[in-house]
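Service request form, structural biology core

Requester: graduate student, group of Dr. S.
Request type: structure prediction, single chain
Budget code: on file
Notes: please return the result as structure tokens.

Sequence provided:
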Amino acid sequence: MEQISKNANLFDFYQLLPEINQQSKRKFAVDAIKFFLSTHPCEREFLNSTILKAIFLKRDQDLLDLIFEELQEFTKKTFSLLQSGYEIEENYVYMMMGRIYAIYPLLEDQCGKKVFLIEKEDEWTLHSATYSLLPLTPWWLGSPVEAVLLQLEKRAKLIFKPTPAPTSNGFLLSLWTDFVPFCAIGGLLFQLWAKKRLAHLGKVDVYGQSLGGALSLHTVLSFPEKIERVYIYAAPCLYGRHKKVKEVEVNHYFFSRDIVPLAGFYSLPSCKVYELSGGMKQNRLLSHLRVVPLEKGLHIKKVEKLKKGRLFVNCLHTVASCLIFPITSLLLLTGLLLRGPKNLIQHLQRKNKK
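Core staff response, request fulfilled:
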């Protein structure tokens, strides 16, 4: 391991969050952001029954909208800090902003809303783009796996969704493609349906966490000429070697103790892998969910090869896949038979509206 930064020059994101004392939905939104962007032990606050039900059980869109709004405010405050002369390396800014972008697909339907983005040209600039959803699977499969598309003037930002909560769009299909025996995570879904739905895109920056990171890697393999910048988080690796791929720099970040990056066997030759640590100690699940804590004291190491535990993790994934894949396939087939007519009617209604 090569030490890149003993103490990355990051700001403490707590100073950019509003102080809210009352028990309101806005406070729940800020608590959710604290959970995803720090190592602060706020699990109890985040797993408060209101937040848990809203995000994982009944999809409270009002709360998701508030989280979206707070992320916009956070981005604008970050830009103001950069404008004020705060010195921070360009790659760290893209790492932090990419982590925030990776949260957007979890916020469900924000279509048509304005998203603020920070880009470096001659100097840091604040851009805005319109949030839109891009279905990656056909309508007849029902609840689709989706990506977020943020269109800028020169190029778009394509953000793939991680495996979502059970009540979110695309949960069953995501779980299905997570556990395909002897196949890279996300690979089957990408080759069957997503690849042709991305073929029309122009130049893009690609982002994703977990399954979203795996889909990002498959996109780089299929459309290297379209990719400008890639930031992925806690993503599994690929199954085969890919030496002939055009050199596209991929930045892959994972928090220490996360085992998901050990799934698969090979990464792209141009992939730079960074292990993050610091803050408070996380268990393996929290390491995977939180990935990049935007706090002072973050340690970043460049990792040449991830070997320790790889064989065990892949054996575990294969065994789990042999059990889960038949079940998810059966559920998908059952849903297709039961909901097929309803899906057709909904498809025709959407087509008529257009």
